[in-house]
Each structure stands twice: as structure tokens, then as C-alpha cells.
């Protein structure tokens, strides 16, 4: 038997027992004729003690230990002289009577403790050592608990966990596919699924009624901050449901996870907001509703005063920063530079200060009388002492910029408390999005999303304005300004699906080639159905109080999509290339 207990288990009530532990040497130190070793395993850390005079042999063996040696120790549990209240085992230590080295270790390239001195790259290269550290262990344990509770909840609601294939044909989530060449079918390729979307719908056609899967998805996108080329979804689909049924059930799941995993109670009814209201009031389709500072349109109030910048635009909007009228010139200049950064993309910033003494100060004093400025500021919800920030442009673009500015001001004012959870459903998305560059419509969610029944006439119209007005029964789950999941009620009639492809400018041949299987399936009695998927990595990170998902994935990729530990992707040898009928035209590295 390697051990009687784990390194996280012993307490004062175990004092006097003889025990055997096994684990890694986290660190050791000598002090006044005694040696101390911290031994670590997945469960915790326990202090070992050996006295040089009474146990010279064990003491000599301890002196030869290096960091990360794997050892087995035997000794007696004793109350500690100086207790460590931060450690669950901090009241005891083991007085060693025996020690065996199970395996030696090279000196690790960085300290393996909660706080590490290792940089990101070196820790990524030695991920298996980084994973020994407490914060990562806790992250993966939280992930495990989440997965377990997801299964618990959905199993309780009659969902079946069914696996779907990874080697498939292109899926329609709108990103680039990762492809896999087929040796047995020369010149042909599989695609890795961007999501199991079509399969889960086929499972509904097959009559499985309630499906879920905690499943890996693959998208070959440029990796903006905090994305991974392979990531995990909690993917779900249900038959004979309307939007309300789906929202109810998954509201319940989120409430269950909050309660069971982190002991947080969230509001009994999660608020709903239409996409249009989200854009108009928050400049974002994933508003952070922990704080106000809403966007106000002031276009009619500011136009016609001879200020050509405002006169020539579609939309002028403002947010009010409470209590910030005291901002200095330097501060407003800095904010102006801030909104000009490419991430925001504004050309400039106009401000109005409603000073405490009742006076008004603005960067556009020249064009507006004080009473006008006062009126504009009040329309933006300002009172004495507040600062109004104004941006303009094409409606949605200007709103989006104001949304980014709003989040920045929320951060600067400390209004985004990470321990407050404000979930929200964003609903009533437009079905389609027009792209000026390619002069065609794209599906805002994906092409299997159903138009709202009351908009079906517009959906069959050939006028762009009509098609732009069509709303979908689509919904996103948003938490604290982060989109955690989304889904929709699906199209289940073959002719509606075909119309959708037509609206998206996909030819009949192309639709048949890519999606013939699902259009066909819809001809064999497809039930009404709908579903959604949550980004599992991100849900875990948010529950863990972290912004980045990387710590919640055991073996993540870096932001060039590389696994630095494996050094992948890499070239394959010529024989493999030949077998696959492949030839690389990439330059030698
Ligand atoms: N397949 C969708 C996605 O990955 C989710 C859904 O519509 O259920 O975003």
C-alpha cells in the first residue's frame, strides 16, 4: 500500500496515529537541528518534520531530497508548534520515522507553488508541471464539478447524452473549418465540427426528444483574446418546444449550477431584453446590466445648430458619467485619445459638464447656447455634477462605440463588481444581417434558425427592407457583459429551409451539396424543435471569477493556435503526405 492518507486529509483529531503518505516535495528547509518538508498531492499539502539528533538517518535522507522528488513517508501525526491557519492541514505535522524516494526529479524550471515565478511560455511548455499548482488544480476541479452538475440537472430533466462524430462535413456556424484529409478517399477531406448543430437536429428528427452533450467544437478563427481553436460546449436540443420552454429550462440549469457549484442564488426570474433595446440602450448585444449609464439618443436636439459634424450624421448619442463634471482638461483629452484607439474607432469625443455651481461647460460651446447644452445634457439623463460624453456616426456603429465607452467608464468607476452576477436573456434578434462588402445577407445566428411566425411574409418578400425586419426566435444568455450561450427555435420544414438558403444567396445546387441531408430529413416528419449551446470553458472561468478560459482547459493552445508543449501543429513526414496525396507549397521554416 502506497499510502494510508492523502496529503490534504490529516487534522488535529488524527494526532498520535502512524500514517504513510505519498506525494511530491514542494519545498524543504532546515531550522535549528530540524528539517521540514512540504509534501504535496492533488488533495493538499502536509508538513513533515524530522529531528537531526533523534533520527539522523531519516534526516540525512531528507537532506538529499530535491524539489518535486516523489516520496513515500511514514511517521506519527503530531500537533504543530507554529500553526498555519491558511492550510487545512495547518494544525498538524508528521514526525518522520521513514522515507523512501519513489522517483527523483530534475530541478523544475519554475517554482511550483500557488504563486509561480515562471513566465507564461515556460509554464505552457511544461504544462504538466504548471498543472501541479493549486490555482490550476482548483480550476480543473471546478470544471469537473460543473460538468457533473450539468449532467445531474439535465439527466433529471430527461435529457439523453448522445455523442456525435468529429469527422464530418462542413457545418454552418460561419467560421473557417479545420479539415482532415482522408487516406481512403484520396483528394477528399473531412471537416471537424464547429458544433454538432446538424446532428442534434437530426436526433430530433429521429425522435430522441431531449439531447445534450458536453462536446468539443473546432473553429479555425484568428484567435482574438481568450478564444481557443478547440473549445467545449454544453450543447442541447429539445423537441415540441417554444422559445419560452427553452429559456425556462436553461434558466433552471444556470440557477442550479450557481447554487450547487458556487453557492450563489440568482434572481428568480432572469430579465429579458430585445436585441433592439440592448443595442439602443447599451450599444451591445451582450449588455452588462450591473450598472446603468445607458445610452440616450440626442440626434434631433443637436442637429441644426451649425455644428457640421453632428448635422451630417445619422445618429448622435450620449452617456452620462455620474459625478464626473470635475474632470480636468487633461482627463477629457485623455478620454478623447482613448475613443480614437482602433478598438473603439471614434473620430472624436464631445463632452458637456453640468458643474455643481449650475454652470455648463462643453467642448462645443461655440455652437450651442448654455440653455441648449443644459437641455441636451438633461436628455442624456444628466444632473448637476455629471459629465456627458457624446459620440456620433451611423446608428449601430455609433451605439457600439458608446457601448465600449460605457464599459470603460464602468470599469474606471468601479461599477463592475465581479462578485455580483447579473444574468440576462437577450431575445428577438434580427434573423439576417446585411453585409455591404459582399452585398448579401448572412444569418445572424446560423441558417437553421427560424424566422418568427409573425414575420413570415417579410421572410418571403424580396425587398431588402422587409428581410432586414425579420426577427428570429433566437436568444443569448448573457452574464455581466459576457455572452455565455445562445440558441434558437429551428426551421423544421424543408421549404422554409430552402427559402433560407435562397435568402442567403446559396444556390440550390450548393445547398443540396452541403446540406442536402438535412433538407431531406425535414421531408420525413421533422418535429418542431429548438435548443441552445453554452460555452462551457467560459462558464467555468466566470464561475471561478477569472476572465481567461485558458486556466480552465487542461491543455490549451496559445494565441497562435499552437500547443507549445507538443510543438504542434508540425510537418508530417513525406510518406504520410504521399499516402494522403498531399503536397505542401508552404515555404520551409
Ligand atoms: N450551434 C449553435 C452555436 O454553436 C448553438 C445553437 O444554436 O444551439 O452557436
Protein model, in words:
The protein is α+β, with helices and mostly antiparallel strands. The chain has 4 domains: 12-103, Nucleic acid-binding proteins (OB fold (Dihydrolipoamide Acetyltransferase, E2P)); 135-267 and 534-578, Bira Bifunctional Protein, Domain 2 (BirA Bifunctional Protein, domain 2, 2-Layer Sandwich); 291-412, GAD-like domain (Gyrase A, domain 2, 2-Layer Sandwich); 430-471 and 493-526, no CATH class. Helix content is 30%, strand content 24%. It contains 18 helices and 22 strands. It has an 8-stranded mixed β-sheet, with helices on both faces. A hairpin with a 2-residue loop joins β1 and β2. The protein is globular. The two termini are 51 Å apart. The model has no long low-confidence stretch (mean pLDDT 95). The chain binds aspartic acid. Aspartic acid binds at residues 173, 195, 197, 486-488, 531-533.
Keywords:
five-stranded mixed β-barrel; 589 residues; 4 domains; globular; 22 strands; alpha+beta
Topology:
Blueprint: E1 18-31, E2 34-41, E3 44-51, H1 56-63, E4 70-79, E5 92-103, H2 120-125, H3 127-130, H4 134-156, E6 160-161, E7 179-181, E8 189-191, H5 197-205, E9 210-218, E10 230-239, H6 243-262, E11 272-274, H7 275-282, E12 296-297, H8 299-302, H9 308-311, E13 315-321, H10 329-340, E14 350-354, E15 360-362, H11 370-379, E16 387-393, H12 395-412, E17 423-427, E18 432-435, E19 440-443, H13 456-460, H14 464-469, E20 474-479, E21 482-489, H15 494-503, H16 508-521, E22 529-535, H17 536-543, H18 574-579
Parallel strand pairs: 3-5, 6-9, 11-17
Antiparallel strand pairs: 1-2, 1-4, 2-3, 4-5, 7-8, 9-10, 10-22, 12-13, 13-16, 14-15, 14-16, 17-20, 18-19, 20-21, 21-22
The structure holds aspartic acid.
Aspartic acid (ASP) binds next to strand 21 and strand 22.
